[in-house]
User: Fold this.
Amino acid sequence: MTEHHLFDEAKLAEIIDLMGGELGTLVDAFRTSGQDQVSRMREAGKSLDADGLTQAVHQLKGSSGNLGAAALQTRCEDLERTVRGGDIAGACDAIQQISDLYVETLSRLNRLTAGGSG
Assistant:
């Protein structure tokens, strides 16, 4: 996925404008919580824990949306819908895709907080 499609660029620009120098704090919180949520998703997927997976993916979906990370938010919505529909067995591939997308998203955010243009 190209970086251009990772974010709702207008929302990201608004967040950067609002947060200013505090963007790093927001990214740090996303890093910490996102790593925990991805880890919880993996564990829930392995143990076929639909409730645990739904909770973790729902939280990651929310934090992604708050940062304008549209691609990650959409993948989380898709997985959440799939699991709520009763198909947890097919979730492993989606969890890996979300994990990879989370890493890409965080990489872009890290560059932004380091003063890069993204």
About this structure: The chain has one domain: 3-109.
